[in-house]
Amino acid sequence: MFIVKHRNVFFAISALLTLAAIASIGVFGLKLGLDFTGGTLIQATYEGGRPAPEVLTRSLDAAGLKGYSLREANTEDYILRAGNLTPEVRENLPAILSPEGSNPVSIGQLTEVGPTIGLELRNKALVALGLVLLCILLFIAFAFRKVSQPVSSWRYGLIALLTLCFDVIVPVGFFAFLGYAVGVQVDALFVTAVLTILGYSVHDTIVVFDRTRENLRINHDRNRKEDFAETAGRALSQTLVRSTNTSLTTALVLMVLFVLGPESTKYFALTLLVGIITGTFSSIFLATPLLVTVEKWRKSGKK
Amino acid sequence: MWQKRAIALVILIVGTGIGWYVYSSQADASRPFKLGLDLSGGTQLVYRADLTAIKGSDVADSMASLRDTIERRVNLFGVSEPIVQTEHAGTFAGTSEERLLVELPGVTDTQKAISLIGETPVLEFRMLKEGAETNATASSTVNDLFEPAAITGKDLKSAELQFQGGTGQLNEPVVVLHFNAEGAKIFADLTKNNVGRTFGMFLDGVAISTPVIREAIPDGTAVISGSFTPAEAKELARNLNYGALPVPIELISTQTVSGTLGDKAVRDGVMAGVFGVGAVILFMLLWYRLPGLLAAVALTLYIVAMLALFQLIPVTLTAAGIAAFILSIGMAVDANVLIFERMKEELRGGKSAADAIHDGFARAWPSIRDSNISSMITAVILFWFGTSLIKGFALVFGLGVLVSMLTAISISRTFLLSLDMQAKGGFTRFIFGSGTSN
């Protein structure tokens, strides 16, 4: 099996990807969105052409708005992010957004999140992430409770967890880059995407390991002696088509969702897409090769 | 064999029936899908209730009566299918608080929605202080002359318009107040102990009626008789019924999505769904041939079953929910892929098609089970974690995992077995899978 044979190449690729992702997170940082920080987001649509940014800025300043950011979107929209609005500003919003009444405006979307709700969601997201990791750890331990020869079950679990970390770091790094490139912010949907990736890619890894487990049992029953690298490599090639095909159908629908789907779930679909490609990559090129390497270490340690 | 075929036929007929039901309910819009605010357009408001003046044991009651009051108020303005619910929250923000969630489909003017709920009159009862002059109200403030009475607007059960007093045609419009049981008792004591004093009823601090108590009123009703026109009396009764809030509320979060934006999201979502399904089916047909066709049928049945469930449960669809559904379509064929790959292996091992089907299913089952468990874990935790947006995703995703397991395993298996592939011939092998010859 060429993947097992040339595993060092794939380790290098994985390491590079991880480093790139970490660098991206370090350099660009993750921008927390409205859901987590509290504040206001307004999408203003100007069907008859939008006013110049300076005009709008002047009007917003006059209304007493502070620390806001204004961004052009589509061809006739502005996205305005600001702190929480006073009732007066909220009441006069159409007038403020349409200085001197020159550009008729319609408000497509207005979201205002209070600071306590933001804080609550932030804490909840962290708890949810911890809980998913814990449950998946327990699940892996349970799924591999009967495997022991020649690699003990906790090693499978550890490697599955390691690839899981890889599966999360890469999309998060990608998202940090997206935040830098197109100003996407981390919202509740992003957390949802990460948690979904966790659930998805762990099963991909488990399917491959499952096959290794089965091959080991068959070898044992038939009293066949085989190098562990052979057994694991065979499991990998047996599940290769399945892994790629499943991911392919999922990636297909996500690509369609990204290109054609609703605006509000575009980056959600993209994050999932990156996560699912990463997850498939790691369960093919990372998990089993790692298993073989760990087994090699164990053997040489014994001698 | 014939039994298997009969079952397969029944599944097809039932599936078509459900499909027809879903289609016709959309075609004549008799049972439209429930859409979340981000798709239908509308406003969501979240309020924090200020419960500092309420005893801990009364919190639930106060919140329930707050919800009822706001609900009546919202209904009064003719919003279709509004949602008003209380929510205990804040466990994760350090302090706990009681919230009121109001969803107004179709209302896209945020400020109007806020004033629709927020600006509610407060009903107060006061007693004229001993020795103060009633007719001096013009020059002195209300607080100089009146002191709060033991009874409050919270004790009011309802108000109604009545005509009473005069004889014959000269009926005067009055507003009759009905107090609740507790209020009736307080009011009876109050009137008994204060015969001869002036009792004032104030709406938003303005005196609307200041009668003199002539005798004890034990039955828990009071009559406000100003010089009302019938229309004024009617409006007062309405304000009293729908106005007085049991606890003050503060707006902490709003979300408004315009109808046009929502409509576009629905159109885009449907478009992505149609093309997504098409891409998956095309792929399955090209790669797996006959089993791929069966998987496509099973996938169609899965979609039909999910759509029917969306209506029957009913599931409120959001943009995230649609994304979950489309994602689940991509994942639903996973079980089929697992089974078919396993089947092809068994075929390569020299088994007959029928045996390969049996063994393929049996061997693929542990993998299918495990993979679905891990997705279910995520769905359950997301549902718990979620704001309404995420809950929409988690519910559809979890439902999708469960239903797809059912359709992939039982339905594709029944179809495959009902085809009766006993032959070991080349054609059978060809239609059962690519790549089996090598």
Task: Give a quick rundown of the structure.
Chain A is of the alpha+beta class and 303 residues long. Chain A is built from eleven helices and four strands; from the N terminus they run αααβαββααβααααα.
SSE blueprint and pairings:
The complex is a heterodimer of chains A (303) and B (438).
Chain A lengths: L1 H4 L1 H22 L5 H4 L1 E7 L7 H10 L6 E5 L3 E6 L4 H5 L1 H5 L8 E8 L1 H29 L9 H30 L5 H34 L6 H33 L5 H37 L1
Antiparallel strand pairs in A: 1-3, 1-4, 2-3
Chain B lengths: L1 H26 L9 H4 L1 E8 L9 H18 L6 E7 L7 E9 L4 H9 L4 E6 L13 H4 E3 L7 E10 L5 E9 L1 H13 L5 E5 L2 E4 L11 E4 L5 H13 L6 E9 L1 H54 L6 H30 L4 H33 L2 H31 L7 H7 L6
Antiparallel strand pairs in B: 1-3, 1-11, 2-3, 4-5, 4-8, 6-7, 7-10, 8-9
How would you characterize the overall build of this protein?
The complex is a heterodimer of chains A (303) and B (438). Chain A is an alpha+beta fold and 303 residues long. Chain A is built from 11 helices and 4 strands, in the order αααβαββααβααααα. Chain A has helices at residues 2-5, 7-28, 34-37, 53-62, 87-91, 93-97, 115-143, 153-182, 188-221, 228-260, 266-302; strands spanning 39-45, 69-73, 77-82, 106-113. Chain A has a 4-stranded antiparallel β-sheet with strand order 2-3-1-4. With 438 residues, chain B is of the alpha+beta class. Chain B has 3 domains: 2-34 and 258-432, Up-down Bundle (Multidrug efflux transporter AcrB transmembrane fold); 42-120 and 248-255, Alpha-Beta Plaits, CATH 3.30.70; 123-242, Gyrase A, domain 2 (2-Layer Sandwich), CATH 3.30.1360.200. Chain B is built from 12 helices and 11 strands. In chain B, a hairpin with a 7-residue loop joins strand 2 and strand 3 (97-105). Chain B is elongated and about 110 Å long. Chains A and B meet through helix 5, strand 4, helix 7, helix 9 and helix 10 of A and helix 4, strand 11, helix 8, helix 9 and helix 10 of B. Chain B: Residues 249-420 form the Protein export membrane protein SecD/SecF C-terminal domain. Chain B: The chain crosses the membrane at residues 270-288, 293-313, 319-340, 373-390, 396-419. Chain B: GO terms for molecular function: protein-transporting ATPase activity.
